[in-house]
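Quick start: load a record and inspect it. Here is Kv channel-interacting protein 1:
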Amino acid sequence: DASMYAHYLFNAFDTAQNGSVKFEDFVMALSILLRGTVHEKLRWTFNLYDINKDGYINKEEMTDIVKAIYDMMGKYTYPVLKEDAPRQHVEVFFQKMDKNKDGVVTLDEFIESCQEDDNIMRSLQLFENVM
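Running the structure step on this input writes:
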C-alpha cells in the first residue's frame, strides 16, 4: 500500500503547501533529484521527512515516514519484518543523526550525518545516469 508514502511525497512536491503541485514544482523537484548537488538532494530529502515543516525531524515524523515505507514494501518481505521494525529503524536513525541528542534532527545534522555515510552517498548517485 503506497498511499501514505504517496501522500508524504506529494507534500514534498507541494512547495507552496496549498494542496496542489504545479508542473513547475514537479520539474524543479525532479531536477534536484536527478541533477542537483549532494547538498540540494539532501535538503530535498530532509524536507520530505520534515512533515510539519518546522525545520526539524522528530521521532513521530520519522516513524510515520518509516511506517509508510514499510506499508509500501508489504507484509510478505524476505526476511519477514518484525512488528517493531519501524520503531527500531527510527531509533537507529536518531542514534546516527541526532548529533547533540536533543530529540530532533536539524537540517545541518541531517546533511552532516548523511555525508558521513557511504551507503547514503552512493544511493544519492543512483539517478545520475538517468536521462
